[in-house]
């Protein structure tokens, strides 16, 4: 039993219990680590300026910049926003401006993106119009292709030179393949002692008709014209004529 004369100790308040539990579950973050994460944050390629600034603000909440009187939070956000932009062109433009703050720096960045995107669209339309004018026989840009009127001495067509002609490239590839096959055939000849003639070699042919026989994917079999010739041949009276036939 408790001594009735002893005073009961004060019971902890619910808020004190919650704070103690939070300190155990979520230990306080180190300021140096949080500021390091803030300094390393850069804009992602698929991230808009507004989204990038929101991410920086979220990281700055745990950096305790307010306590640093030499560099207020807004200036740090502005500088980090500029230094971490993905586009170097936008960085160069912002670094030449005065009186930038954490609010208008995002506005200037978005305005720069819209302006240059519109300029790219207009430039693309100008190139398309120049191509259309050239195809219709009117004035055209000479920088589009300096070989548009050049004549190819391989195929006789205009618009390219002979050394880049597709027909010449196809012919060159066929010759290279033929030379490769002939080299392989010579290797087989030397290994097995065979006699080969280049004029009688057919590389890549689906079938070869030789001496009344056909050689194809079904191996060797008698040619149909030879079978028909045997059927239509007159009867031979002498056995020597059969042997000759």
Automatic annotation (TrEMBL):
Q: Which UniProt keywords apply?
A: Metal-binding, Zinc, Zinc-finger
Domain named CCHC-type: which ranges? Answer: 151-167
Name it: CCHC-type domain-containing protein
Which terms does the record give in the GO molecular function aspect?
Answer: nucleic acid binding; zinc ion binding
Recorded hits in SUPFAM superfamilies, A to Z, give:
DNA/RNA polymerases
Concerning Gene3D superfamilies, the annotation shows: 3.30.70.270
> Coding gene?
20206810
Q: What InterPro entries does this protein map onto?
A: DNA/RNA_pol_sf, Retrovirus_Pol_polyprotein, Rev_trsase/Diguanyl_cyclase, Znf_CCHC
């Amino acid at each position: 039993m408790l001594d009735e004369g002893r005073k009961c100790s004060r019971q902890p308040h619910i808020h004190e219990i919650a704070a103690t539990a939070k300190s155990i579950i979520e230990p306080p973050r180190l300021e140096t680590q949080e500021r390091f994460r803030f300094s390393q944050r850069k804009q992602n390629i698929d991230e808009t300026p507004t989204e990038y600034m929101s991410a920086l603000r979220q990281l700055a909440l745990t950096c305790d910049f307010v306590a640093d009187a030499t560099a207020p939070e807004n200036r740090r956000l502005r500088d980090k926003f500029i230094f971490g932009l993905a586009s170097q062109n936008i960085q160069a433009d912002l670094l030449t401006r005065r009186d930038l703050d954490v609010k208008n720096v995002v506005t200037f960045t978005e305005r720069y993106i819209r302006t240059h995107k519109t300029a790219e669209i207009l430039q693309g339309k100008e190139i398309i119009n120049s191509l259309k004018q050239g195809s219709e026989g009117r004035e055209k840009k000479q920088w589009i292709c300096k070989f548009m009127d050049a004549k190819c001495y391989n195929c006789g067509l205009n618009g390219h030179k002979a050394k880049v002609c597709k027909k010449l490239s196809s012919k060159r590839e066929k010759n290279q393949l033929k030379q490769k096959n002939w080299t392989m055939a010579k290797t087989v000849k030397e290994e097995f002692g065979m006699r080969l003639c280049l004029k009688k070699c057919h590389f890549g042919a689906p079938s070869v008709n030789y001496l009344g026989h056909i050689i194809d994917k079904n191996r060797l079999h008698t040619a149909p014209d030879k079978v028909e010739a045997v059927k239509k041949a007159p009867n031979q009276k002498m056995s020597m004529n059969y042997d000759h036939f």
